[in-house]
UniProtKB/TrEMBL annotation:
Skewed-composition ranges (Basic and acidic residues): 1-19
Keywords: Membrane, Transmembrane, Transmembrane helix
Coiled coil: none
Entry keyword annotation includes Transcription: no
Name of the protein in question: Peptide/nitrate transporter plant
Organism: Heracleum sosnowskyi
GO cellular component terms, semicolon-separated: membrane
Keyword Membrane attributed: yes
Chain segments carrying region Disordered: 1-23
Amino acid sequence: MEEKEPLLDEAKMEEKEPLLESNKQKNSAGFKAMSCIIANASFEKAATFGLSANMILYLEKEYHMDLVTGTNIITLWTAASNFLPVLGAFLADSTVGRYPMIAFGSIVGILGTILLWLTTVIPQARPPLCGDSTTQCKSSTSFQVIFLCFTLGLISVGAGGIRSASMAFGADQFVKRYNKEEKHLGWQVGFGIPAVFMLFGAVSYFSASSSYVRSKDRSTFITSFFQVIIASYKNRNFTSATLHNIVYHRQKDSAFVVPSKKLRFLNNACIVRDRERYCNANGDIQDSWSLCTVDQVEESKAVLKVIPLWLTGVLMSVTVSQGGILIVQTMSMDRHITSNFEIPAASLGVFFCIFAMSTVVLYDRVFVPFASRIIGQPFYSTSKLKMGIGILLSILFMAVLAVIEYIRRGIAIRQGIADNPEVIVNMSALWLILPYCLIGIGEAINTVGQYEFFYSEFPKSMSSIASTLRDLSVSGGGLVATFMLNIIDQVTRRGGKPSWISSNINQGHYDYFYLVIAGMCVVNMLYYFLCSWAYGPCQSAAAMKVSREEDGICHGSYV
């Protein structure tokens, strides 16, 4: 007889026991299962990062696209890759389940990377090579562009499936059971490696299928959210001004006795107007679209309250959506470390990863103790403080980039190569390490702050969604970046002048473009201060913990 997979009741998962038990033997299976999940997610990230780092060069050199068109494709692809995990999280938590969602994403991701690799192998999949004169280059056909976008779309769908539930599914496993060098190797190898990474990740994930703990219950937050909206509208005429004794419907042993005073228009959803009509003999709600619990109302409020602060993450993500332009800037600078070694342009972005990872590791272990000694008292780093620090560093990132580009462009003009962007400017590309350092540190601190903020403010039933909201902000940032890129390009090219974002970097004004984004970041900082003040203190994880019982009872909380 075939052994059934372990199923868990999420109500039992709420028991007051440590997430990681001290018994190593009991945890060994969980660690083994989670290692496969981490490997799958890591291979997907490595594959996507490897592709995105070189994509702008591939589109310009092989598909003969201009900088604006190529950047638009990349930012839209990035936006899709960061939006689809949110959609996947909704589906994983409500209907599909986390294991099937990750499995689906793994298969589709492999298909997408293989098809993209085939565009480097099949000559008909891309335009023919240019001759000696770039004016002789043929542009891509509609079919070639559509096929390319289709492969990128499959990769985005795969990323959506894998990223949407990997973090939450990994946590489930610990619950008690019941360059030039690049050019020489060729695009075939460069795009073939990410396909192999995706394959390795999928094999790792499926190899532990029999060991995974899979949650039986499904979250119904989306339905619950709309029930609160509709019920509050139906009860809009029943308020404290019209009722002398208001009775709020709450669950047994709920942490919320009465709804909070913020967003009070939603409190009408949990007012018990007629107990006999809306509750049965056992106290269960009969019409969930006319009466909701206090818990449902507070969970819906939690989502609406974080939206203004979440938008600050969207605007900050505009700064990290400039990867394609940064690659072009790097290509025009001297990338030699020694006379015989030259850093590939796309590889310079590894400094972003180094500083980001170092910040995550050293922040609590080095910075916080150091700050505590400086101020002479314990330094408490809240989630909102981390988000604010990240936004501040994003301003410095764009400002430093603008200064470096201003200097680089001036040197190019003095060298007399304004009309020839292929000639290397006599300025070291290592100057770009400084802005990579700033955005790496800022992105790491801001990301950690956002994750902490969403997890503390959101109900547990939205764990997958909370883990993907950061991706959603990056997706929104990509769309905003695309909009700004096209608007600035159209406005600055009027009158026959070169666009600020010209494919010829020496004739454009990338420094002006960076300053515009820096100005937007300053506005974002002021907006963040306002939203943070209006939001008030964050809810602690303990305050948000609610005992979820299967039976809801019509208790009366009189005000």
